[in-house]
Predict the 3D structure of the following.
Amino acid sequence: MTNDPLFLLVALAMLVTLAVLLFGVGTFGRGGAFNRRNSNKIMRWRIIAQAVAVVLILIFVFFRRSGG
């Protein structure tokens, strides 16, 4: 499975989502002017990254169940 390019793409998308989430939690916990200016933007990045990851997971499951 680790040789499957689609699996690696899914794993990368999940890692990007995790990184954005941790960055957002870190800035939220620290507070300050940066958080006030960018918290909504970071949340949008996380939602977009998460949506891409979910779509890639669904594509992966579809192709693996259909024998592709």
User: Anything to note?
Assistant: The chain has a mean pLDDT of 93. The helical segments are 5-30, 32-65. The chain is about 90% helix and 0% strand. Residues 32-65 form the longest helix (34 residues).
